[in-house]
Design a protein that fits this description.
This protein has 323 residues and is α/β, with parallel strands linked by helices. Helices cover 41% and strands 14% of the residues.
């Protein structure tokens, strides 16, 4: 039973399946596991294995028999995409989660880490947001379908623990950024969108960059390599039914983020704010005391993290997705 399970170092020679290993989080987890000496990593691109194909997923698990799984595969997008295609975000994420976890259960996967999102919490949750805030209020309407899918994933992990005693766990990251991010004009989140905007302005000699809103909303940002480090730490040091928030425990204003990015890319012009455009939620900060109690804190500073992300973005120029 999971009640008797004691977290311990994972076997570096055991088969470890990273679902979504080409994505922002999955690729970072893969890099971390490689660096830590895991010798039997398994990954499949969506072209090689469609996680919405239940029979194919069960066949894959029966063939590879992973001992560990990091479930980082998901259909993701910004506010516009979530608000425009709620059915796809609900249906596809539910299918991915159900297929992977049901197949993992049948295959007897020992340790599974399910990755969610901080959007699972109520729109008007207390700040910073504790894990106990889950299911205590209404969700943000623009991404409620995606949030419900992720909440269902947490519930499935808890159900497997209760019924089958397997020590599976869930982690809920704050806003992530870093190598592998989406920098497209229509699909990116705020930090990569600002990197692209300021870098193009600097390269083109623009004198002004105009951003939406007032710049006053506060957001928490975690480098994806820190996230990957936290995932391995939790797998080796935490066991419990409740999801664990993963973040830095500190936040900054959008204006401060913009100033840091401008400095890093070398933009020397002016920044203006279009206050006719919406700001969004005033603050969104996770309570990371449970994570700290498990022995982990973020290490990558924001300016250093942005610098490494800008370097990656520039190195990928011409090979980035455009939606």
């Amino acid at each position: 039973m999971s009640d008797a399970f004691a977290p311990r170092p994972l076997d570096r020679d055991a088969t470890f399946y990273v679902a979504g290993h080409r994505g922002l989080v999955g690729s970072a987890i893969w890099r971390k596991l490689e660096a830590e000496g895991f010798a039997a990593l398994v990954g499949r691109s969506s072209a090689e294995l469609d996680l919405k194909d239940r029979a194919a997923v069960f066949d894959f698990f029966a063939e590879t028999k992973p001992r560990y799984v990091a479930l980082a595969a998901a259909k993701v997008g910004g506010i516009l995409a979530n608000n425009t295609y709620p059915h796809e975000f609900l249906s596809e994420n539910l299918q991915i989660q159900l297929n992977v976890m049901d197949a993992a259960l049948q295959a007897g996967v020992e340790r599974l880490l399910f990755l969610g999102s901080s959007c699972i919490y109520p729109k008007f949750a207390p700040q910073p947001i504790p894990e106990d805030a889950l299911l205590t209020g209404h969700l943000e309407e623009t991404n409620d379908a995606y949030a419900i899918a992720k909440i269902a994933g947490i519930m499935q992990v808890q159900a497997v623990r209760r019924e089958y005693g397997l020590p599976w766990i869930s982690a809920m990251p704050t806003n992530l950024y870093g190598p592998g991010d989406n920098f497209s004009p229509t699909g990116s989140h705020v930090l990569p969108a600002l990197i692209r905007r300021y870098d193009e302005a600097a390269a083109g000699g623009a004198s002004v960059v105009t951003n939406w809103g007032t710049g006053t909303p506060r957001r928490e940002f975690l480098h994806v390599d820190d996230m990957a480090d936290a995932c391995l730490h939790l797998l080796e040091n935490y066991d419990g039914p409740q999801q664990v928030n993963v973040g830095t425990g500190t936040d900054v204003t959008i204006r401060e983020i913009a100033e840091t990015i401008a400095k890093v890319v070398g933009f020397e012009g002016e920044t203006e704010w279009d206050t006719s455009k919406p700001d969004g939620t005033p603050q969104k900060l996770l309570d990371v005391s449970k994570l700290a109690a498990a022995g982990w804190t973020a290490r990558i500073g924001l300016e250093d993290g942005i610098r490494s992300t800008v370097d990656w973005y520039r190195a990928q120029h011409g090979a980035l997705r455009e939606k």
